[in-house]
Amino acid sequence: MSERITAVKGMNDIAPPQSAHWEWLEARVRALLQRYGYRNIRTPIVEPLALFVRGLGEVTDIVEKEMYAFEDRLNGEQLALRPEGTAGVVRAVVEHALLYDGPKRFYYMGPMFRHERPQRGRYRQFHQIGVEALGLAGPEADVELITLAADLWQELGVQDVTLELNTLGQPAERAAHRQALIAYFEQHRDQLDEDARRRLYTNPLRILDTKNPAMQALVEGAPRLLDHLGAASRAHFDAVCALLDAQGIAYRVNPRLVRGLDYYHHTVFEFVTTSLGAQGTVCAGGRYDGLVAELGGKPAPGVGWAMGVERLLALLEAQQRLPAPPVPDAYAIVPDEAAWPRVLPALRALRAAGLQVLMHARTADGLAGMKAQFKKADASGARYALIFGADELAQGMVAVKPLRAEPGGAITEQVRRPLDEAAQWASELLSPSIS
Length: 435
Fold this sequence. Notes:
It is built from 15 helices and 16 strands. By secondary structure, the protein is α+β, with helices and mostly antiparallel strands.
């Protein structure tokens, strides 16, 4: 026997029945996004390394420690597996001049990659659903995206999700705050941990996001960005808060919410839960008005968010909000292999009419007997068994047997139906009652 090959650590297979939950969630999210006017965009998984270095920031954790970067063996080009979705969407918008005829609203779904220690809710290959609104500058666009996420929680029946909100102002205001932070933390250098010392002169804003309990009091006393905002930035943030208030969307202003990417300014936000332990952020985003120009385009505003699919599914599971796995409408029982020429056309017609039919077929051990096939049919969860026995086929018929007691079900006892009229009687198996 050959040596078994397993998946890369932190990169997981998703098989039934779990994959059905993914499909269900993606369909629900896609329908909501389309009602908001967002349209799908699909970008490559592999991008130029420079896209993320320039777009995310050279001293961010993602670029410094987490990105899968490599050299193309054919031409020496420096490439990376995408660690997030926004930079690739903006690159595509710039490359293809997608804003030439006005603002755009996009959404994406797909895998991202970060080289970090795998743990529950944090994997090396993980999946994101993200939205980006480009060309829209006002606070109403920020609020539209926040409202979209809030509506999703409502549609999914999710509880225990809280909105945290902050503003990072404009670049000049952030620069003034940065200097104030450096000066403050320099005075307390002896209280900084190793990570904070490393970030002191490269990205001091990230020190505010420390999870080290020993530094919490120090961080609480640090200068606040809110105190460095000019009139325009304050007005933008006040308008965001007022529009959220007008819709009854609750939030908490968190001055320590900074996000981990350099492209953010003005509004930033996170939806957090206490139901998942340390991995409590299920959706996060903000405004990034400078990113389009940073990636070579004509200056244009942008705002977006992303949510982790694995974390959201874990939250839905914890709150018992996931649907039962799908089951077939019918299970085809075929006791004789000579029946296939007549069985297959009938099943094809039933499926074309909208019926989900699981067909019993021969395994390596041969074709199972009737009793074993009925056990398989029952285990499948199917509502009906379609019995293609010799007596039925001799009369051009198939027996339809209910496998579940369903009050008001379409068929409550075993009946026969014509093989050549499968498309006509398929509706009986989908209907709540039969005449």
